[in-house]
Amino acid sequence: MFRLMVDASSVLVRETPSNLLPIHAPRTSCASRHRSSTRFCARSSGSETERAERQVRARGLTMLVELRIEQLGVIDEVTIVFGDGLTVLTGETGAGKTMIVEAINLLVGQRADASMVRAGADELRVEGRFVLGDGTDRVLCRVVPRDGRSRAYVDGRLATVATLAEFGADLVDIHGQHEHQSLLGAAAQRAALDAYAEVNLEPLRTARAVLTEVDAALATMGGDERARAREVDLLRFQVDEIRNAHLDDPDEDASLERQIDLLQGAESHRESLRAAIAALVDDDGAVDRLAAGTAALGRGEAMREHAERIRELQALVADLADDMRRVLDEVDEDPQRLAALVERRQLLFDLRRKYGDDVAAVIAYGAESAARLAELESWEARAGELDRRRQAALAEVQKQAARVRAAREKAAPRLAKEVEGHLARLALAGARVQVQVGADAVGDPAGDEVTFLMAANPGSEPAALARVASGGELARAMLALRLVLTQAPATLVFDEVDAGIGGAAAVAVADALADLGARHQVLVVTHLAQVAAQAAHQVAIAKEVRKGITFATARTLHDDERVDEVARMLSGDLAVESAVEHARNLLNARKSPRKARSTRR
Q1: Higher pLDDT, 373 or 58
Q2: CB-based burial of residue 319 (10 Å sphere; 0-12 exposed, 13-18 middle, 19+ buried)?
């Protein structure tokens, strides 16, 4: 199967499989399983294509440089290399021009339909390579199987279709009938008005962030005054109870147990102590017997070590006896002291039951409760301060929101008037445009809802752009908006923009597209010779039947080929000499590229 490469940057068409290489080796375009079939055009180091791409990178442009389509509708395999500025796709009705737009739609996340898959194929695949302003590449890929769910890839990695759409929204905007058009969305229309009016949203965003922070602090403090009062009362009781217990020693409960044990058996303990002391130090007690042992060993050097050890035992026993005498002096029947110790032990037991497993835990709980109580007792002061901060933040939000709304309301009629002026040139002289600025929009810092309305015909009521009935009218409305607005995705695609017009209006549309091409990469599906003649690049789409099977072909046109194609568009017959001459004149009169194009990002 031969693969067709189409280069819209003024290079020759190549039809040799050896000219096809991966997008950038060794990385795959979609995924490793598609490595063998997912390929883009080769570019030899000296080719005009490569030189054009080097210029794009050197100038920091963002644009679609290559588009590969496989098994989509009547397309078998087509690869197109795009250039900067205005590129037109021309051909007979039904040749497959719109399939190129459909492919780009799939590339930027439009809903896929299995009926798009070419008859006899298992799946269709669309890949696009974009050069970004920083000189890097971004490769988007969409695979739609005949059975099952579609797959999306970004730079060779599997991604969701939503992710593909997110990337695509920054790169491509498509204008035509029921297409993926960013300017139909409320957020995009609001952003477009802000860009036109040069509205600075940062002060409003900052004020809202401060208000959100204060509200979060108030929510953390709690807003239930009764619950807060109940917690304060409970904490005060607990803190007072623990504080009044004078807990200083974490081991106090163990000490109490020892003291109570002594006092509860005072007489028995005294008798035991007296007997033990007597056994140690009375006549013929342990001390005397140890002394006798020392004497028995004598003063000889051989027994000196043993004698020393006996003397050490003798001193130890004497010290032990002194300790027991001190305890004996302390042990006395004191019912009052015993009662006090028992009461203290019960207090510690009650505190442990409520606040912790031991005295140390009770002490810790008391400290935490005291801190929380102090925080709550200062609530009124803190709440007052936060409330003052909130009122100031709210006032700043309202001030900044009013400033933003005033700027939008002031700019809205100017934007509408400028767009109407362009629409008049584009064969919509009776069209009316309104830019409404309302309130209560979700997702806008100022709460404004911005809506672009249009009445394409005199006497009709303005309606939202998404409800404009004619695809051609909608496309021209988008063209007019793009001529006014400075911010837009790098690549703009127009389908049906010239539907139902001719003569001076066709020339106006052609001039408008050429002007837009000075700032953006513009791809246009057109039937108008005037539009085709203004393009920097032209790709002819045609159908041919081979062995009963229809194939779409694409061919970059140069020089006389463009003259012939434009002549065909003028008269439908290449044999008409006047059409050929007219075509040549149109092409010779084409606008030269604007310098503004070199500064576009």
Answers
A1: 373
A2: exposed
